[in-house]
């Protein structure tokens, strides 16, 4: 069994944008094609039903079918669905659905219906781990108001509830503390615009946004950074950073979908309450994307 099979969350897993038709219905055919295209272009797998996939505004039926579509397209080992929900029981049901669909791991936010304390976070991860599928924690204190600090992550890992963490706090210093407290817990890059810093700090993977539009160059960037090829990595990072930083902005879904449209993919619209980009935002993203295309990065 390969390392990737043992730890299927390693490498470049793309938090997939979700194609919608003109009536804002999920286009599962285009989504299947997109998943396949990402893997064909060097990505290691996909993460459906994350924030970039607009899971919060999907019906339960749509959300389940998105997972099934991804598994049918590229195989379950390469699919790590987001299973976030307001209640732990609902998150566990989504983990069980992913498990039954053939997925090898799931990604889980902490409780986000309120500012949960440490005991609540512990109980939440314990419940979902009971589904029997490996859990990757997702630390996004900006959106959830719950911060999975290194000490808490180490406890959750020590109890066997999590195997890795997607780190989105933006604080790269945590990587070193986490490696000291829980050396077997895999750190995954969670924000595109700190990729180089976290890769150099020993990250084992990247739950990525911008490969939705620019998979080959983004994969090359990650492989160079993780492999210590700083000359290649720094140049690509500088070229891509005007786009990568949009992954940490409120409008990240709209931004990435626009870049997808510009490079000839299907990005398209978002469901409300997300609204179209402001003209100045669209102009900045368009200019940065076209510059990347001109540089041969598409």
Automatic annotation (TrEMBL):
Pfam families: DHDPS. The keyword Membrane does not apply. InterPro entries: Aldolase_TIM, DapA-like. The keyword Lyase applies. GO terms for molecular function: 4-hydroxy-tetrahydrodipicolinate synthase activity. Pyruvate binds at residue 207. Keywords: Lyase. The active site is at 138 (proton donor/acceptor), 166 (schiff-base intermediate with substrate). Belongs to the DapA family. This is Dihydrodipicolinate synthase family protein.
